[in-house]
Fold:
Amino acid sequence: MQAPTPTEWWTLFAFTVFVGACVGSFLNVVAGRMPEGRSISHPPSACPHCKHPIRPWHNVPVLGWLVLRGKCKDCGEPISVRYPLVEAGCAALWALIFVTIVPDPAALTYPVEVLLPLLGYEAFFSALLAISLIDADHFIVPDEISLPLIPLGIAALAMLHAAGISELSFVDATFGAIAGAGVMLAIRWIGYLIFRREAMGMGDVKLVAAIGAWMGLHPAIFLTIFGGSLIGAVAGISVSLVRKGKPPMLPFGPYLCAGALAAFVWGDQVMGMLLPTL
Structure:
């Protein structure tokens, strides 16, 4: 197969970013409706104030909000800046995963080996973003998202391994899910013994099981837990210093998801620095 040009790489990159922004628009709907038990497919998006349906050309990710200047076309009420931020954030997420899996045009000479894991992990981390948004708003990790990720991750790694694309196999994915859940259950139990209250919910346990299913039995799963705990601790201390009061209750899910992303993108480099010192 002829090697693609840098222009083709940038074209695919730009297309990936655009699709990521569109997925971010959908995640806004998921995060807003799923916790309330509403359908994520019907009715179409509408202004939360006047209930007027949003016109398709005003629903273009980020640009639609900018064109409307952050206000509803029909009633003039403000539209939350969260919507374009989530869309831009998901676009950036897809861009980061793209450059991690397809670092240069030469990688595109093997499209199947690249596109399958690219699509899989973009879908996986988009699901983690949806979980993060819902947990940040409602302090819940929805089983409707986290539980299906476990068999999907195991199946995805098994398929990639069978195709000779990934070194991680069905066994790695299965034990990754078990190890992730086991570590979190142990932390939950220890936290209860020390503080006499639940240190985390079972939703976080299921979430890390899902992350383990996609990461496999790999040091990255432990980097996920450590990284998530570190990011959460820094966030909690920072908020406490700003508010000058008792440390606030913070959802753990978004930090675990951030830890998973960091482990996926930089896990090998971190382990490369740590292993020589062990």
In short: The chain has nine helices and no strands. The longest helix spans residues 6-33.
